[in-house]
Amino acid sequence: MLPHRFLVLLLSISLLGCSGNMKERGSPEYISEINEWHSKRIENLKKESGWLNLAGLFWLIEGENKFGSDKSNHLIFPNNAPEFMGSFYLKDSVVVMKVNENVEVHLAGGEKVNELILKHDQQAGTTICNHNALRWNLIKRGERYGIRLRNLDSEQLKKFTGIETYPINDDWKLEARFEPYTPPKEIEIPTIIGTIEKDKAPGSLVFTKEDKLFRLDVTDAGNQYFVIFADLTNGKQTYGAGRFLYVNKADSTGKIYIDFNKAYNPPCAFTKYATCPLPPKQNYLKLEITAGEKNYGGKG
To answer: What pLDDT does residue 109 have?
Structure first.
């Protein structure tokens, strides 16, 4: 018979192994793939075009909208901006920016600008303007026009240390089938700013988990489907307004896999200056999806 202390040691090793399996599950290649995906995700958040440096979102009114750091402006920029920089003029869905003579504003290519018509973010060649560490551009949401402002010296960007995730678990890489809508179905997608956007869903992804059938309406994203979904972890471990996910279209064998380990937070989890779409009501899952990103900052 084995000594008691040896039995205790074996039991401890066994429990440690079980604990390790609970923390991460999958082949070394799969775990490496997910870690690499998440690393790129973090890199993208920290880029100039990422979401961590947003410093303002200003909706324009018809007519003149003055901007600068002085509190008397319609659009109040951070303190590292000149007091009075110029004005945005909105008229008949056209926005013209006029810069005051003593202010240096440049386009992305370095050209100094005094006055020009701005192209918004849904047009090719969106106009990007800059003054020192500040960057801004025009956005269009429905019938509204706004100025999105970035500060490359953002404190949030400097303090950012990453996003907590659930342990990688290949049990959450689920085979699904695509059920097309013929013709594509118009769906309503609410936004965090209170508007409703309409889009076309080419079909839904249907999958099984815990012996139950679930479906998610998707939108087309080229070689992938884009999914906005909510689940029972929202407001607890994950962001309260749902998460995003891209799903590759069918491979050469005709199979589709939904990998919830790649579920990620929408921009609004990081900043109040984003205009996120929210899950359509049919994409609310009565299921705890314990995979992918948890809420930024640990708040539900």
So the answer is: 87
